[in-house]
Each structure stands twice: as C-alpha cells, then as structure tokens.
Design brief:
The chain has 411 residues and is an alpha/beta fold. 35% of the residues lie in helices and 21% in strands. It contains 11 helices and 16 strands.
Length: 411
C-alpha cells in the first residue's frame, strides 16, 4: 500500500472511497514483491500493480467487491496453465493478496490517512496489518515509528500490541517489508498470528566519488533506480551542480573526509571512480570497515593490484579486502559511460537481491528469490544475517589464500 502513498493520499483528500490489494507473500517465481499494491477507487480508477498483468483483472474485481461489502479478504493466486481461463500466474509462482477497503466511516480510515500523510512527507514509518490468525484480529492495523511509539491496537490486547510494535520497530530499522509471525499472547507460542509489515524508509544512498563523465551516467541511473545520489570530489572545478544536475547533492571535499562525517547504513552503495591512489587509498581504508551494502572501485587490473598492495600496507585485512568489488561492475563488454554505469549498477543490484549476474537463459533456479518472513524476530534475523556475512567473508579469504599459495591455510 505504501508504494502508492502519494496517489492514495490524494484520494483521501478528495474524500474518495477505495480498496487496496497488497501482496502479502510470494512463493516461486512472481514479478512483484510483498508490499506491492493495486488500488481501485469508487469511480473505478485503478493505480499500481500486483502481478505485471497476470491477475490484475481478478484483483480489480476483488477491490470492487470489497468497496461494496466492506470486507477485508485474503486471496491466493497460483499457477494457471495455457488451457486455463481462470486467473493465475503463468510464471508458475503463487501470490497471497490482501484486499482492504478504505471507506468513509471505517474506523481504520483515519489511521491509514495519517500513515499515508507521513509517508508522503518522507517520514520513516511502518504499517502492520493482520492477515491470518484469530478472527477477531483480522484486519486490525498498527502504525509504528522509529522511536517505538505507535498508533492503533490489536483488538485491545495490550500485551500483543506492545510485542508486535517492538518487532515492527526492529524491521523498520532494517528497512524491511515482509511478514511477521507471532503468538496471539505476544510470545512465540500460542495461536500463530501473521502480520504484513510495510516499511517506508528514506531512499538508500548512492555515493559516487570522482566527478568524471562515468559518474554523470551513474548518477542518472542511480536516480532512476530510486537512490538518493551524492557526488563527492575534492576538485571544485569538476564537482559542480552544472555538471551533475540530477544529483541530490554535489560535495566538494576530500572523499575520505566526507565519508568520515556523512551518514551511511547497511543499504548504502559506495562507488569509487577516481582511480587515483591519493584519493582511493584513504577512502577505501575507511569504506571497507563500514557496514554498507557495497564498495566498488574503478580501475584496470594493474591499478587494482597496486591499490590492494597499498591498502595492505595501510593495515586493511584480507577479510576486509574481500568486500572490495574491483575492477568495479559486471562483465557486459561496456564501452561508453552509460554502458559502464549499467555494468556498475547491475553489480550492486545483484548484490542487493542475491543475484548471480549470470544469463537467465539455461538456468533452473527461481528468477525471483522469495522475501523471508520474520519468524525469529527482525532483530534476531538481522544478527543472523550479519553473522552469515562475516562467515562468508572469512570463507572467501580462506579460498583466496588457498588459491594463491596452493595449500590449505592453517586452521
């Protein structure tokens, strides 16, 4: 629902009734992720999409029905073969779709309206809606903010509401949209209750170091992908808004000094395009020790080898060096700045979603990887993911030492 916040906020302002169909869970191959939505107003106008076309007609009719009877429903759409006329996903996946009416006089309308207003204003907020479990809890909603405060209640069950708010806050801090399964007593036992959590957080950051023509192309592509894009270069003659009109920020500063003072998180992408040791080494020395999503550096293989040697001299460990993507990008045979930007963006998008970068032709793995539900609690999941990343880095370092020496490293 929150991906349509701008349009839905406009509908609320006009006093329109509407129904929203939101993807709750995806299994197998499906074109959209949890949180994607299609909405229909009382005039029959439709916005958004849940399947890219496969089941839009059926979902549209469900929304129209919900507007008439005021009932929240959960519907599953699965595979439909070439001879079937019923709605289904020809790609072979399964979608669970929650259809929620938002009508004048509905108790939840004011809560949804305030949530849409917050999202439209750029606030960090999460909307939790019950989708499976005890009948008296279905359709209840909760809005949670980063400081842990919340609006709404889950059927006057104070303990459950507080527990869910705490779990949702942890998912919000990680910027995660997905499902949460919790017991109706607020613990991990008892009758299970499933909630859809939609997190609205600021756009992830893409910081491009080096105000060159390749950076200009990467800025444009980064904005297209939904990133908040910053260009940083120590040379004022190059770091100008006139050269990078699409960038959200253009900063004139030594790259490592800027990185020391700016905010980054686990979604931040750092692309170092300067390929100049006096800029690269102090910058990468810091970047490789930060909890960011991606660190890539441009340069030839000879430049890369020299850069790695300098980083080792500066005290960067092998476990930190394996995080460096250099030479930056996937092998697309790119030549122009625009093609090179596509190569770079392809790599950090693949990193973000666990893609391999291989052609899909001939592969047998699912095209769309499922988004896991939070059965352990979002904070616990985050700790597990961090540990797995650490183990992966250690294994990568082990393999590199093994390949370079021809023998197994000491344990």
């Amino acid at each position: 629902m929150l991906d349509l916040a701008g349009d839905l906020h406009h509908w609320v302002g006009q006093g329109r009734d509407f129904a929203v169909a939101t993807i709750v869970e995806v299994s197998g191959s499906a074109p959209r992720e949890p949180g994607a939505a299609l909405a229909v107003d009382d005039r029959g106008t439709a916005i958004g999409s849940v399947s890219g076309g496969c089941v839009e007609g059926a979902v549209y009719e469900l929304c129209r029905q919900a507007l008439q009877d005021g009932r929240t429903v959960l519907e599953r759409f699965g595979y439909s073969d070439d001879t079937a006329f019923a709605a289904g996903l020809t790609c072979g996946g399964t979608l669970d779709v929650l259809v929620t009416p938002v009508r004048q006089g509905d108790p939840a309308r004011a809560l949804i309206a305030s949530t849409l207003s917050a999202v439209r204003s750029g606030e960090t907020v999460a909307l939790a809606r019950t989708v499976r479990g005890s009948a008296d809890l279905l359709g209840h909603q909760l809005v949670v903010r980063p400081d842990g405060t919340y609006e709404g209640t889950l059927a006057d069950r104070a303990g459950l509401t507080r527990s869910v708010a705490a779990e949702v806050r942890a998912m919000l801090q990680a910027g995660r949209t997905g499902t949460l399964v919790i017991g109706t007593d607020g613990a991990r036992c008892g009758e299970p209750l499933t909630l859809l959590i939609e997190a609205s957080v600021p756009s992830p950051r893409l910081i491009v170091f080096g105000a060159i023509d390749f950076a200009a192309a990467l800025v444009r592509l980064g904005k297209f992908l939904g990133y908040h894009v910053t260009v940083c270069d120590a040379r004022p003659v190059f770091a100008t808004e006139a050269r990078f009109p699409e960038a959200d920020e253009v900063v004139t500063e030594w790259p490592h000094r800027y990185l020391d003072t700016t905010a980054v998180d686990e979604r931040t992408v750092l692309c170092v395009l300067t390929h100049d040791a006096k800029f690269d080494v102090p910058l990468l020395e810091r970047a490789l020790r930060l909890p960011v999503a991606y660190v890539g550096a441009m340069g030839s293989r000879r430049t890369h080898e020299d850069r790695v040697a300098r980083l080792r001299e500066a005290g960067v460990t092998q476990g930190e060096l394996v995080r460096l993507r250099s030479p930056i990008g996937l092998d697309l045979g790119a030549r122009t700045p625009e093609e090179t930007a596509l190569s770079i963006a392809s790599e950090f998008v693949a990193d973000r979603y666990g893609g391999t970068g291989r052609p899909l032709t001939g592969t047998r793995e699912p095209i769309h990887l499922p988004v896991p539900s939070s059965r352990l609690g979002a904070d616990c999941v985050a700790r597990v993911e961090a540990k797995l990343a650490s183990v992966a880095a250690e294994l990568a370092a082990w393999r590199e030492v093994s390949l370079s020496t021809g023998r197994e490293p000491g344990r």
